[in-house]
């Protein structure tokens, strides 16, 4: 019976990962096709945000995802609006990078996210990392540098856009953890809120930036293939977020990190095969080194968290010990996965692969 349950869990994880890889790869390939024929990155972003807004509500309600609690206006403007701004900017830069450079190279550059996360966490939160964590950044930087120097279709705008998107995703992850820990809001509800808020906030900017140009390209709009590709891209982008969360909910942090790094390799491989982007052996070597660096980073971070949890508590003198009241007398602060305002699980550690 035990073996049967283990086999069932393994089959579930493998199936979810396979669907995640296929969906993400297809989404990236279609995204490249869309931007090649329809070079409006902001419009592609708006379609994806609209897809999140339209599909999330009914699906999450049917799936039984708990609703988000109401937020004060102060909280909205202090945290959610900046996060929505970050999500929009990161998505636009991502699409610009995919438009200007091959998908394989854009994903290789995105492997630098751990580097941005470590640096920004140190600056913003004052977090210090262990020596193995810092050392794991070396192969990431080295691999991206090799891939950049040997990229046959190199474009400076594409490189800078990919780096800007990665840095923005890192910032978004840091502040998303704050929202998750302080409110206990479900990951998927946060995705829904940010998608809807981003779409509503940037309609005026989209109208000013793209609408007039798109109206002039009436021939493009009349082609059903482009409209279909746009709608498919939005649906796949939403679906890959759902699959990413599903994998995250049934695996450990390290397993999820490995699965995410493997997904990046899968996306790079599929994009090279389907889109036929030329790549030298040294270029492929650089991509592989950067992904291995990400795996080493995930392992080092997991070891660091285990070491921090294993640290013994400092002894206190007897006059400073305060006994807790009996359980029935305590305030019921733990609700919906939140205890004393902090999330009681480690899913927020996996957010850097999800948002």
UniProtKB/TrEMBL annotation:
Membrane topology reported for the UniProt record: Multi-pass membrane protein
A single GO cellular-component term on record: membrane
Transmembrane segments: 40-63, 75-99, 105-125, 132-150, 187-206, 226-247, 254-276
Domain called Sugar phosphate transporter: residue spans: 13-298
SUPFAM superfamilies xrefs: Multidrug resistance efflux transporter EmrE (SSF103481)
Keywords for the protein's UniProt record, in alphabetical order: Membrane, Transmembrane, Transmembrane helix
Protein location: Membrane
InterPro entries to which the protein is assigned, alphabetical: EmrE-like (IPR037185), Sugar_P_trans_dom (IPR004853), TPT_transporter (IPR050186)
Primary subcellular site in the record, as a coarse category: membrane
One Pfam family per UniProt: TPT
Matching PANTHER family: SOLUTE CARRIER FAMILY 35
Name of this protein: Sugar phosphate transporter domain-containing protein
